[in-house]
Amino acid sequence: MGSVRAEDDIIRSAGIIRKALSFDLDARAQFPTWTEALRRFIEQADRLGVLVMVSGVVGSNTRRKLNPQEFRGFALADDLAPLVFINGADSKAAQMFTLAHELAHIWLGESALSDAQASAVPAQAVERWCNQVAAELLVPLEAFRADYEPGTELRTELDRLARRFKVSTLVILRRMHDSGSLVGAAYWAAYEQELVRLREVAKGAGGDFYRSVGARASTRFARAVVTSAIEGRSSFTEAFRLLGFRKMSKFDQLGRTLGILF
What we know:
Largest sheet: 4 strands, mixed
Oligomer: single chain
Mean pLDDT: 81
Radius of gyration: 19 Å
Strand content: 5-15%
Number of strands: 6
Shape: globular
Strand order of the largest sheet: 1-5-4-6
Number of helices: 13
């Protein structure tokens, strides 16, 4: 990638990335929820050749969780295989913004370890630029201002705009701040309150291992690992290590889910 610079216009740069990803508002409108839009967001990046991996633990050790307060993601810029890693221990809502932020780094052609939060104003100029591009990529400010109804109760408006733009309510709060409609202490209080609410919601949400492994290891990467093991070009032990599990039954089920085994 490396087709934009940190001095470039925010709106133009976000537009370049959005067009490459085919992730505009019309494309997102077909999805019932922002979580489905996030899944497609990952798939589109993968199709462009960006490996996207999500994990909240070290290897397959569930006792060694990654702390979102230490880092939320990183980008490895590489001409052959650019990679974005997202800390899966963070909330799903926060992961969407992290992905957008790290993709901005990929388009810059720069590797980075990031603490990407929609609410943050980083000290480093490049990090600020990536945050601004991420917000504009997910919710164009012009479209937001056209849809925003400032007289509406905050909870109602957050939910409505999140449905409209197919993003998390945290990103909507960020755009409220960017538009000047929610600033100062009111913004920070609303953001922290929403973050707590989303974490509580996440505790009660289950997951499908075989659907999520594609995001954890990138669907393209998972296919390559499974195929390589089946064809005997690599060991099953190595495949298990790369995919983050230890049982052959999970490998078989993943192969069927990916359409490789029948």
